[in-house]
Amino acid sequence: MLLRQLEYLVALARERHFARAAEACFVSQPALSAGIRKLESDLDVPIVQHGARFEGLTPEGERVLLWAHRILRERDAMQQDLTAMRGRLTGTLRLGVIPTASSVASLLTTPFCEQHPHANVRLESLSSRDIMHRLTEFEIDAALTYLDDDALQGVRKIPLYEERYLLLTPADGPLAAQEKVRWAQVAGVPLCLLDPQMRNRRILDGLFAADGASASPAIEADTVADLYAHLASGRWSSVISHAWLHMFGIPAGMRVVRLSLDDTGQGPRVGLVLTEHERESAIVRALLEVARGAGLRDALDALLDAHLDS
Questions:
Q1: Helix or strand run (H / E) with residue 303
Q2: 302 Cβ neighbours under 8 A, 6+ residues apart
Q3: Residue 167, φ and ψ in degrees, nearest 5
Q4: What pLDDT does 136 receive?
Q5: Which of 258, 272, 228 has its CA nearest to residue 108?
Q6: In the prediction, which pLDDT does 310 show?
């Protein structure tokens, strides 16, 4: 029963509600509560701050939760390893993805599922600040994120591509006819950009500043989809990553223009990160094999060239 009790604890910490945790575990609420009490008895520590409703975990409970994630991860890795030995990888790949890289995640997940039809993938949109926490608590197996992030400590990094930045602007706008524009010029047109809390926006603000300018967007969005929804009106311009072209392309009546400080193509690196383990799970090894053969950098650069030449 210990593994099942640990599953109850993980569900309770995630849902922060006894009834929802019980529903997630397909048991009754009394059964889940009894399992948590049994875990407290077996370990001889208080785990849950008991009250009329869930009020959080005790310090001991937080430590047990960390071990629960680790033990359940090892359980899953063992099962995956055994099924892989039989030539049939199963299980769930838990992949965290920053919102600005979600448009290219399918370039990894689609071939992964094609090569391993008995496995599945659960994607979770996470900020770059949350990814390290989720990795260290064994809540995700890997993440697709910016690699040039000081918060990423004690992780393995696999570069996949470098972001290239472009001005996406109305075709009849003042900068649309130019072959190349400067960041200071872009700061002067009506802009729609991502929220300042997002890493992409902080990178762009640094590039504007490097050209002696600052951006004051009229509209800020917290998803790329919301940003594109505004761009489709033909009223706004934006600075986009070339990776977004894979999913969103160029809206009708708009065009992309090179940014002069992006000539080298050596923008922020995006890639996979995973915790450093003595051994990788079978499902993570499978992901890395797919990533090595996906050729994201070449595919995205070819897409960029095609849009610039059109």
A1: helix 296-309
A2: none
A3: -85, 125
A4: 82
A5: 272
A6: 66
104, HSE (Cβ side, Cα atoms, 13 Å): 29
Q: Beta strand pairing status for 269-275 and 142-146? A: antiparallel
Tokens of 233: 């009106």
CB 184 within 8 A of CB 211: yes
pLDDT of residue 87: 73
| Amino acid identity for residue 19 in this structure | A
Within 10 angstroms of residue 28's Cβ, the number of other Cβ atoms is 12
CA neighbor of 139 nearest in space, from 87, 245, 66: 66
The strand pair at 142-146 and 91-97 is best described as: parallel
Measured at the CA of 135, the angle between CA 23 and CA 141, to 5 degrees, comes to: 70
Residue 288 DSSP symbol: H
**56: CB partners within 8 A, 6+ apart:** 16, 48, 49
User: pTM for the complete prediction?
Assistant: 0.76
Residues 251/228, Cβ–Cβ less than 8 Å: yes
Q: Which amino acid is at 246?
A: H
Per-residue model confidence as pLDDT tens digits over 48-80 = 987 767 888 999 999 998 888 888 887 887 877
Low-confidence ranges of the chain (pLDDT < 70): 1, 52, 261-266, 277-279, 310
